[in-house]
Design brief:
The complex is a heterodimer of chains A (about 575) and B (about 80). Chain A is α/β, with parallel strands linked by helices. Chain A has 17 helices and 25 strands. In chain A, strands 1, 2, 3, 4, 5, 18, 23, 24 and 25 form a nine-stranded mixed β-sheet that branches. In chain A, helix 4 packs across helix 5, helix 7 runs parallel beside helix 8 and helix 12 packs across helix 13. Chain B is mainly alpha-helical. Chain B has one domain. Helix content of chain B is about 30%, strand content about 5%. Chain B is built from three helices and two strands, in the order βαααβ. Chain B has a two-stranded antiparallel ribbon with strand order 1-2. The chains are: A alpha/beta (about 575), B mainly alpha (about 80). At the A-B interface, helix 7 and helix 8 of A face loops of B.
């Protein structure tokens, strides 16, 4: 008897070929047969009228910490995501000496906007090595995890404080190579590095002190196993992005490795720049390099309050310094003192078009509740003041816990973004899942892909979109045995209604350790999610069995890799 | 950095990655030897505002006074015409 039968579904198998109607039988965690299944399964899913697809793979997340208290990476799994890649942007949670924990938490807080209390109250630090971290998150894992190793962590482990001061010696590079090799052999999917990120002191992260020979040496180790190099380039400048992707292309060809850079945003003011970048990507692929740009599906919407630092204010040094390093008392004092307040208002005056558009989305006091949903422009008109002054006043009245939404900040021209997502050399990803938790929801990008760019605009066919987030992603990253529906493959399966799949509205959830909150979006139109042959989530039953795995897993247990 | 010559790649803005200990003057001497050093440094700085305008290193840092990091991209010519 099959462990599970999914009946009457419209199979979109990940190859990009047309959908077809069939049943799927699952046995011992793998797809046993696709066709007409006469036997009754121990469990059955009726997929009549629904699409049955491989589980979606999210290649750019920061679930590293969340996995320690939530093995399902909620709510990503409920959106049909069965495999996640944490450890991006040079930051992972291992290998990590005890002496470097505070440093790492500071970097996660600064770069990924993860609250400090989530680490202090949600994390029991009982590992140092990469294998020990993997053993730790394996407990209760409901989603598959393909973990990257962070370059900044590798440097810190080998060089300690010097990792943030200088280039490595030859012997230090050799030690980093061996450490990376050990991580890959324990199950890491590759290495991540960053050329832009700043630490908690607003100084460059350790990976930025590496010279070209160190990066080449580490890429050589990746080449021993055909594993991925992920980078964050200077994405704000097309010339710099092109120079970085040329550097990646050389490493890709020399060491026979796949590489990926993220993010690549398409905004109203950089259309020609993105065309130049993509033209270079095409040229490098034509040479035989693999340089996959990751493009997110969702537009840029940013929420903020002055209770926590927001990267939205990074371009305003006076504001950013205050909210990054100031105590709540100092922020309130700066907002109250006429001279400092005037200086802050003057600093953001050149962006006068932005502030009236912001929407008030969360307050504590009953007095201000009637203003929820109004723009700062509307509130300013009611109060006879300016939008910036209204923002400051509301923040003082709400003890800094007034939250504002800056919607439509970019990447929101559906026609252009849709065409970019459909490009054969674009890798759909860059969700940042699990990070920036009070700035925006990083969940539901696949729902948005199918709702906006398949159903509404038709930029991609259903089969194309499924292939992009399943088989293509598995092939690009060298994730074996996943991404396709065919006999013998691991049974990671997402069942959804193509007429209703979407991401729900962004809502605030109070579910972060340390009494923290985050913005999330619940899934729409997903009926069931199967991980490793077990039903992990259903729309009517919620989260269920935990059968997630580390992929590709330890070398000894993994089959030969076939990276794209 | 990649040299487009013979690779089938279109010309892009020329850039280098620094050698160990490079500062503006060292890069200027190597990349723009035909210019007087002060003029070459000034040109490099104007082409690399992402480095020139970088926040200073903290007091006591070994890289104090030199904003160039070992992983940086340094352009050695102005932007190409559109």
């Amino acid at each position: 008897m099959p462990d599970l039968v999914i009946r009457n579904g419209r199979i979109v198998d990940g190859t990009g070929l047309p959908a077809f109607v069939a049943d799927i039988a699952v046995r011992d965690g793998r797809i046993a047969r696709i066709g007409r299944i006469a036997e009754t399964g121990a469990r059955e899913i009726d997929a009549t009228g629904l699409v049955v697809a491989p589980g979606f793979i999210d290649p750019h997340t920061h679930f590293d910490a969340q996995l320690l208290w939530d093995g399902f990476a909620k709510p990503a799994l409920s959106h049909g995501v069965t495999t996640i890649v944490p450890g991006n942007c040079s930051l992972s949670l291992a290998p990590l000496k005890a002496a470097h924990r505070t440093k790492l938490v500071g970097m996660f807080n600064q770069i990924e906007e993860m609250p400090l209390r989530a680490f202090s109250e949600g994390v029991v630090w009982d590992w140092e090595s990469f294998p020990d971290y993997l053993a730790r998150i394996r407990r209760g894992l409901g989603v598959n995890v393909a973990p990257l190793v962070g370059h900044s962590l590798i440097r810190l482990w080998v060089m300690d404080e010097a990792a943030m001061e200088r280039i490595a010696t030859d012997s230090e590079i050799a030690a980093m190579q061996q450490l990376l090799r050990d991580c890959l052999e324990a199950g890491a999917i590759g290495l991540s590095t960053s050329f832009v990120d700043m630490d908690e002191r607003l100084q460059p992260v350790p990976s930025r002190y590496a010279d070209a020979r160190e990066l080449d040496a580490l890429a050589a180790v990746l080449g021993e196993h055909g594993r991925m190099l992920q980078i964050v380039p200077e994405f704000y400048d097309p010339d710099l992005t092109i120079a970085r992707l040329d550097q990646l292309a050389e490493l890709s060809i020399r060491h026979r490795i796949p590489t990926s850079f993220s993010p690549l945003f398409l905004n109203a003011d950089n259309v020609a720049a993105v065309e130049r970048v993509m033209a270079r990507v095409d040229e490098q692929f034509a040479r035989g390099a693999r340089v996959w740009p990751q493009v997110q599906t969702r537009p840029i919407d940013i929420s903020f309050s002055f209770a926590v630092p927001s990267l939205l204010f990074f371009r305003f040094p006076g504001w950013y310094r205050l909210i990054r390093f100031g105590t709540p008392e100092a922020i309130r004092a700066a907002f109250t003192d006429p001279a400092s307040r005037a200086a802050l208002v003057a600093e953001v005056a050149p962006f006068d078009a932005l502030w009236p558009r912001l929407v008030l989305r969360h307050v504590r006091t009953a007095a201000n509740r009637p203003l929820l949903g109004k723009t700062l422009g509307e509130i300013a008109a009611l109060r006879g003041t300016t939008a910036v002054e209204a923002m400051i006043d509301l923040s003082l009245e709400e003890d800094l816990d007034a939250h504002f939404l800056a919607g439509g900040m970019g990447h929101n021209d559906d026609a252009k973004v849709g065409a970019l997502l459909a490009h054969p050399h674009v890798h759909i990803g860059a969700s940042d899942g699990g990070a920036h938790i009070l700035s925006f929801s990083t969940y539901g990008d696949t729902g948005h892909l199918f709702a906006r760019f398949v159903r509404e605009t038709g930029a991609l066919s259903l089969e194309q979109a499924v292939r992009k987030v399943t088989a293509d992603t598995a092939a690009i990253w060298g994730i074996p045995e996943r991404g396709l529906l065919k006999p013998g493959m691991v049974a990671d399966i997402t069942v959804f209604d193509p007429a209703t799949i979407d991401r729900g509205p962004e809502v605030r959830a109070e579910d972060v350790p340390g009494e923290g909150a985050r913005y999330v979006r619940e899934s729409r139109g997903i009926a069931a999610v199967v991980v490793g042959g077990r039903i992990a989530w259903t729309a009517d039953g919620g989260y269920q069995e935990a059968a997630g795995a580390i992929v590709p897993g330890p070398m000894a247990a993994a089959p030969a890799l076939a990276a794209a | 950095m990649a040299d487009a010559t013979g690779s089938g790649l279109s010309p892009v803005r020329k850039a280098i990655v620094p050698d160990a200990g490079d500062d503006w003057a060292a890069i200027a001497r190597r990349a723009l030897p035909h210019l007087p050093e002060a003029e070459a440094v000034s040109a490099l700085q104007s082409w690399n505002l992402h480095l020139f305008l970088r926040a200073p290193a903290p007091p006591g840092s070994p890289r104090q006074g030199n904003p160039i990091l070992p992983s940086d991209i340094v352009f050695i010519e102005p932007p190409l015409p559109a």
